[in-house]
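Need a sequence for this fold. Nothing fancy.
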């Protein structure tokens, strides 16, 4: 949803920055890696120690690097296949670190074990949402859309974490449980989208050494 509504406005801000960086010889892949390393380090340093508000600010700063590398790729005219894979991989690593850090806090100094379950659900479901889309596209199918994509997941998690760090009651529990439910719902949505796409495309068969099969092995 946010990808559709906010992309044009965000690009107006990030595209000039991307052009400036490209003009000074900075590679998009460097920005991708720096943003990921910063996000992971901040998530695993500040959050488990209970420094939720400061952690949110630092993580948000590095998450914004993901917008800049896309703007840089557009400024160069096109991205590269390696850059696309690197960007997607780094996104998964950064997202995993965020929810791992929150889980660590919940089970540690936060002493909120039940909330830790919600954080773990967000961690696993978020990875599944992205995997389903990637696996579907690799099979020539479509799984675009869903209730909460990456932008929504990051915004809800970071806003809830930051407000909790400022002392707003129930901010993080509400954010994580809401996000956990929405993420599980989105997993179901994407599986349904893949099913519909498969039905629309018709049966696909491959012929291996032992004869025809109706599916390829999973990676």
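Here you go.
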């Amino acid at each position: 949803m946010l990808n559709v509504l906010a992309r044009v406005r965000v690009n107006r801000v990030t595209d000039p920055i991307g052009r400036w960086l490209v003009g000074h010889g900075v590679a998009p892949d460097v920005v991708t890696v720096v943003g990921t390393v910063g996000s992971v380090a901040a998530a695993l340093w500040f959050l488990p120690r209970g420094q939720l508000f400061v952690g949110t600010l630092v993580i948000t700063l590095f998450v914004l690097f993901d917008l800049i590398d896309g703007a840089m790729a557009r400024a160069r005219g096109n991205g590269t296949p390696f850059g696309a894979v690197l960007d997607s991989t780094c996104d998964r690593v950064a997202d995993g670190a965020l929810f791992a850090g929150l889980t660590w806090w919940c089970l540690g100094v936060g002493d909120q074990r039940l909330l830790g379950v919600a954080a773990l659900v967000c961690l696993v479901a978020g990875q599944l949402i992205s995997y389903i889309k990637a696996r579907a596209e690799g099979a020539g199918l479509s799984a675009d859309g869903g209730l909460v994509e990456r932008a929504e997941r990051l915004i809800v998690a970071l806003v809830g974490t930051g407000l909790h760090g400022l002392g707003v009651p129930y901010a993080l529990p509400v954010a994580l449980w809401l996000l956990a439910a929405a993420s599980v719902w989105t997993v179901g949505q994407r599986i349904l989208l893949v099913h519909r796409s498969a039905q629309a495309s018709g049966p696909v068969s491959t012929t291996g050494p032992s004869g025809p099969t109706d599916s390829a092995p999973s990676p």
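For context: The chain has a mean pLDDT of 87.
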